[in-house]
From TrEMBL, chains A, C:
Phylogenetic classification of the source organism: Bacteria, Bacillati, Actinomycetota, Actinomycetes, Streptosporangiales
Entry cofactors: thiamine diphosphate
Name assigned to this protein: Pyruvate dehydrogenase E1 component alpha subunit
SUPFAM superfamilies per the UniProt record, alphabetical: Thiamin diphosphate-binding fold (THDP-binding)
Cross-referenced PANTHER family: PYRUVATE DEHYDROGENASE E1 COMPONENT SUBUNIT ALPHA, PYRUVATE DEHYDROGENASE E1 COMPONENT, ALPHA SUBUNIT BACTERIAL AND ORGANELLAR
Pfam families reported for this sequence: E1_dh
Record keywords: Oxidoreductase, Pyruvate, Thiamine pyrophosphate
GO molecular function: magnesium ion binding; pyruvate dehydrogenase (acetyl-transferring) activity
GO biological process, alphabetically ordered: pyruvate decarboxylation to acetyl-CoA
Gene source species: Sinosporangium album
Ranges where the Dehydrogenase E1 component domain occurs: 27-318
Automatic annotation (TrEMBL), chains B, D:
Identification of the protein by name: Pyruvate dehydrogenase E1 component beta subunit
The keyword Oxidoreductase belongs to this UniProt entry's keyword annotation: yes
GO MF annotations, alphabetized: magnesium ion binding; oxidoreductase activity
Gene3D superfamilies referenced in this protein's UniProt entry, alphabetically: 3.40.50.920, 3.40.50.970
Length: 340, 325, 340, 325
């Protein structure tokens, strides 16, 4: 999946092979089923601390990731389980991390909000709003400096557009012409507050692109191919020295903000309208309409259920992190002492 | 009397003051319509309306800037910084502006404002949502800093903070939101800068703050069963620090143990130890010992978080050991 | 000087009486001569710490202040001597503050960067970039809440537009519809770095107004009447419930950034071009062209020289702040103790 | 050997490391074309070019974000935060991100980066441009913190910091930029976490940091003329803290005095006093005494600033008095 046209104006989704399309479906289903399992485990009091589910937004991580290459960098938020999955991190270690087990991705030390998989270029999930936007610039700068051709993609929420770091990050990325793509996942809400009630413009990211000399780019975040096409263009632009792009992807989270939040603050009609735009059944129908066998998609669903079950087993089977882990890996020599 | 949770006490303290004084206003993220992510501000919007209880964007600098400016111009704002960890994104307003401006102006302006936050560990939220940062605040001249350890203190110290004409930071122990206590009916108003002796004993003094207070009390009971009688002081206020009460307790017992939630280096315990050894050297019967969270970020996993925080067991064993000196 | 038209579209400068115009001239001259004296005293090592001169930018503070009413609030930067002067603070206490004397505006405790005159609504000079933008919102909020009709004016530099607090302040002011006027004094430089080299857009404030749903407003900051007209409109809008305005006033500082900086990093042609646009001689010529007697203006110059000399005397005659002052006025009860 | 100012030593240390390692890059406000507002980076742009030495906008969060991200992705960046007071506008990156991310990731990533700033008083810049904030940094787990007190240490500790694989904050004493010393030619590389005994004496130990070091030395000489012989320790590094050297000096002398520039509460002096009384109680000959700036914002006027900072006279008189115990 690489493109030479400029798909920001001419999204090249027609060049997605059937296998590519099926893979997009698979990734979305994997994200969905994984998150549902997280929710179940949270209700069983096995997922500790907090957890922020991605249900409803799967087309964004999936479509963007498909446009990226191996070696590219990804920066995400606390709502980032799916972003790791689509970059290749297996389910088990993510789930084990959420359960606070020693076989977790970070041995249980980080937790749900701080997933990181450096081996796959995911340089972290960030839990303080806005931080990853400025940090992602640094990874992009390193790639630019070393001329590696790597592109950095940084995801964030609509609410993050109102914090100072957003502003600094955008200006900085543009003046240094960094190879970076910023993806605002506008799911219409911060925690419980509608974004429109606290934002001076309608489209919190796109309507601000001009403040950094960027074009406004808005995409239907529930249409995985549209996301893919837009992202592919932006990634291509970044990779070929064209500098940053700021994409606003419109979407909705089906559930509440975190943990057991039922999301009752949202008008029912609004919720229903967005549920009708659920990216997964809609894409499934589209694929079937294009001649993909329903059976093949069912198989993906079943395979994913199996994958999630296996991951759950693996996670549950992990022991508690050993006490010694408290004392390791503060410093790069592996230790944590503060005195000599 | 009624059973009130620590969480409910926050809203009750704010409501009490908003009823009394129209210049008291309240702002923060998700505080109005949603009643706060910790449900500490439930009911305020309904009672006081959207002019006085306001939701904000995720703009902590704007929140504290508005708070500071409004205080200078005649309001008495209360702001919420949702998790105290987020002070880091608006620290300039706290550490450089609201704390210093009165002094720099040699008194031309005052800052009658309160900032409240969920603080500290216990909920497995990981390193960026579990910190006790009360020592960051204590290190800044010009801030008053209180950490209530129970619902009654929460109401009374909130009232005292709102009535005070200087910037007061209130740290709510997140791990204690669900704790209940009998609370008297009617108005409760406490004073800033007063520690409280909550248990008397002749052998040693345990000074504890916030969520560490009940742990220190439980430890004192266990120690008592082993023949060590501890005075327990709830420090309550880091600035002003009630050195008088603390020194009196310590000088009577000759031994001091502090129980701190913040990471080890440069906490209030270090300050207190330094004060008592300098000013009360003659009473020292043995080394003062600090019981703290190690100098580490907090891990997320249950067992590791528990291991990091001072536990009742660790308090008991450290004091038992220390008293052998 | 009050206006009922909407001067943002229809600047009402034609309604300035001759006396008003002469007063604008006087205020600019006062600011200029005051700053020159500061510079002299700095070179004599009498002004302590640092000092940031306003020479070249006088038309902005003068024009804006003329559009404000008594009781309005003013927030400024470390480059704020002139802003206090035009709001009515006498020269002596400002100068004495810079000399670190007990008769200084804040008894010598604040210094040149932190001038404040609450009695005249100047709620402070701020030395950490961006802070005053968010703080000014609070004063505007208090006025709105108490329905006093007061307007808040907040000055800042071009460099400040790239810091996060700028972004948060603008969005916040707009969504709360605050009675506030933000005035960006674009003097083309941060300290030594040209603003265009570190900013993604050409006009650092105006090109970002749209990101907050505001109209771009640019004014010739060396034309005192143009500034006045634009400010009058914005103040009127704020006072009548129309919410915030963001004004970008284009100008230039004649000297260096601070202290003895000679400003050598600036191309000579650029400097010369701007010196030719010096707001004071130009306005002087304009007034003479309109029939004002040169003698009257000379008299102002002479009166101002006298005022500056007197202020200098007063400042120099002040004693050092008493040692006891170290210990006062941290807290509102006048004390500074941290223990009970 | 050549006479080098403290200010020049900064640039020399950076240049030494940039020559050695192409992955070392440098960014900050006005650092490239202008050579820094304190002229601590003069010549770097000329020697290393605009790809490696970069001016930034006034965007401290963007500066430290870029620094942190670049460190994670294989560079070894050095950033300047012009005045250390400005850490307050980007504290999240320091206190929550670069310091904690390695631990949270259980070692998946490292942060080989350095942040340098002008720190502290002496220039009459007032409360927001004169603070010693080294204790803010010391309170954050995951940061290494050094405060060189002379040109040779500046070069050597800069080199050590750049070569270290963890985040190191270097505090340059603004008040000492013009100080000169003889500096050996050639490469200078020091180690982090080593205090230095710079004077020996049997009666007491004076521990001092940064700009307080020369004052402590002058005080020690005056004390010597009055019959009190002090060991003077230049603490140099707050994290790691060289407890070994400090404890050895203190246990030999039995008395400790600290000389701190930061405002009083929760400084490194409190930490050090608490450590030595807990771990070296048996050596205590009298109360340890902290000599600090009062817990106040710094005033701008010359005489008041001078009054606030620990002066040679105050050090001498406090120690003279203290030794009477
Ligand atoms: C600086 C900061 N302020 C507040 C929070 C608390 N918080 C966590 S998530 C969240 C809402 C974020 O909304 P958005 O950016 O739209 O992302 P979403 O959760 O919708 O994916 C808030 C306010 C935080 N983590 N960091
Ligand atoms: C947060 C912060 N960063 C850096 C500085 C140092 N500094 C002081 S003035 C200045 C330049 C400001 O430029 P601008 O906003 O254009 O105002 P001007 O000085 O030109 O009036 C800088 C970088 C500061 N005071 N605060
Ligand atoms: Mg959202
Ligand atoms: Mg400027």
């Amino acid at each position: 999946m690489t493109f030479t046209t400029d798909p920001l104006t001419n999204p090249p989704t027609d060049s997605l092979s059937t296998a590519d399309q099926i893979d997009l479906y698979r990734q979305m289903v994997r994200a969905r089923q994984f998150e549902k399992r997280c929710y179940d485990l949270f209700l069983q009091n096995l997922v500790k601390g907090t957890t922020h589910l991605y249900i409803g937004q799967e087309a964004i991580a999936t479509g963007v990731s498909a446009a990226m290459s191996e070696g590219d960098y990804t920066f995400v938020t606390y709502r980032g389980h799916a972003h790791l999955l689509v970059r290749g991190t297996p389910m088990g270690p993510i789930l084990a991390e959420m359960l606070g087990r020693s076989n977790g991705l970070m041995s249980g030390k980080g937790g749900s909000m701080h997933l990181i998989d450096a081996s796959r270029g995911v340089l972290g999930s960030y839990a303080i709003i806005g931080a990853q936007l400025v940090i992602a610039n640094g990874a992009a700068w390193a790639a630019q400096y070393k001329e590696t051709g790597q592109v950095t993609v940084c995801f964030f929420g609509d609410g993050a557009t109102n914090i100072g770091a957003f502003h600094e990050a955008m200006n900085f990325a543009v003046i240094w012409n960094l190879p970076i793509v910023f993806v605002c996942e506008n799911n219409q809400y911060m925690e419980y507050t509608p974004i429109r009630s606290v934002t001076a413009v309608d489209r919190p990211a796109a309507d601000r692109a001009g403040a950094y000399g960027l074009d406004p780019v808005v995409v239907d975040g529930n249409d995985v191919e549209a996301v893919y096409g837009t992202a592919a263009a932006a990634v291509h632009k970044a990779r070929t020295g064209g500098g940053p792009t700021l994409i606003e992807a419109l979407t909705y989270r089906h559930g509440g903000h975190s943990r057991a939040d039922p999301g009752k603050y949202r008008p029912d009609e609004e919720l229903q309208a967005w549920l009708a735009k659920d990216p997964i059944p809609n894409y499934r129908s589209a694929l079937i309409g294009r001649g993909v066998a329903e059976r093949d998609l069912d198989l993906i669903d079943a395979q994913t259920r199996h994958e999630v079950d296996e991951a759950t087993e693996m996670a549950k089977s992990g022991g508690l992190p050993a006490d010694e882990l408290l004392w390791t890996n503060l410093w790069s020599d592996g230790s944590s002492g503060w005195r000599t | 009397m009624a059973l009130v949770t620590y969480r409910e006490a926050v809203a009750r303290g704010i409501a009490q003051e908003m009823r009394r004084d129209e210049s008291v206003v309240f702002l923060g993220e998700d505080v109005a319509a949603a009643g706060g992510v910790f449900k500490t501000t439930v009911g305020l919007l309904d009672e006081f309306g959207p002019k006085r209880v306001r939701d904000t964007p995720i703009s902590e600098q704007a929140i504290l800037g508005a708070t500071m400016g409004a205080a200078m111009a005649g309001l008495r704002p209360i702001a919420e910084i949702m998790f105290s960890d987020f002070y880091a994104v608006c620290w300039d307003l706290v550490a450089n502006e609201m704390s210093k401006s009165r002094y720099m102006a040699d008194g031309q302006v005052s800052f009658p404002l309160v900032i409240k936050s969920g603080n500290g560990a216990g909920l497995r939220f990981g390193a960026q949502h579990s910190q006790d940062i009360s020592n960051w605040a204590m290190a800044i001249p010009g801030l008053k800093v209180v950490c209530p350890s129970n619902p009654v203190d929460m109401i009374g110290l909130m009232a005292a903070a709102v009535r005070d004409n200087d910037p007061v930071l209130i740290f709510e122990a997140k791990g204690m939101y669900a704790e209940k206590a009998e609370v008297p009916n009617g108005e409760i108003v406490d004073s800033l800068g007063k520690a409280k002796i909550i248990r008397e004993g002749d052998d040693c003094t345990i000074a504890a703050l916030g969520m560490m207070v009940p742990r220190a009390m439980r430890a004192a009971e266990i120690l008592s069963s082993r023949g060590i009688e501890a005075t327990v002081v709830d420090v309550r206020s880091l600035v002003p620090l009630d050195v008088t009460t603390l020194m009196a307790a310590y000088s009577r017992t000759g031994r001091l143990f502090t129980v701190e939630e913040n990471p080890r280096l440069c906490g209030w315990g270090a300050e207190l130890v330094s004060i008592i050894v300098e000013e009360g050297f003659e009473y020292l019967d043995g080394p003062p010992v600090r019981i703290t969270t190690p100098h580490l970020p907090l891990p997320a996993a249950d067992n590791l978080e528990d291991l990091a925080l001072p536990s009742v067991e660790r308090i008991v064993s450290t004091i038992t050991e220390g008293m052998k000196y």
